[in-house]
Amino acid sequence: MAGERAAGLVRELHRAGGGNLPPFRAEGLRQALEEMRALYERNQADVYDRLLRIRALRWEYGSVLPNTIQFHMSAEEVEWFNRYKKSLATYMRSVGGEEGLDLTQDIKPPKSLYIEVRCLRDYGEFEIDDGTTILLKKNSQHFLPRWKCEQLIRQGVLEHILS
Q: Most buried of 71, 86, 101, 131 (most Cβ within 10 A)?
């Protein structure tokens, strides 16, 4: 059992009772400290592994974790997750120009930079980077830059046509 040597030293001290003092056990104390150091290192590795898993959950689920996952997290882990997601959001806003860059969007690299989309409802004019304006009308189809369409796809204005 982890901590057995340290527990043995404490039991020996309590058995001595009253004003008695058991002999100092330098080797036993050294072994207990070594055991405690190994246990501490193992616990640190477990904590680090949990944080790596929590970080991966941010990329998998987004900025809001399901309650079933949060239920199994300590208050400190939830706090760490919140700090991590804020730090990631700040970084993503700082890169990629005015709109930032959503690094969580495509975990796997896209096969092409342009996608075919169908407009699900009348949206109006939509300008792409080269200054071209496109009229997005219900049921119209377009071949557009993926990154310009992603937000409209999430909003339900466009749908990605998979060929």
A: 101
Question: Looking at per-residue confidence, does 151 or 127 come out higher?
Answer: 127
Query: What is the 3 state secondary structure string of 69-133?
Result: HHCCCCHHHHHHHHHHHHHHHHHHHHCCCCCCCCCCCCCCCCCCCEEEEEECCCCEEEECCCCCE
65: part of which helix (H) or strand (E)?
none
Question: Would the pTM count as exceeding 0.85?
Answer: no
Token pair for 74? 């300590």
- Burial category of 145 from C-beta neighbours within 10 Å (exposed 0-12, middle 13-18, buried 19 and up): middle
Burial of 149 (0-12, 13-18, 19+ CB in 10 A): buried
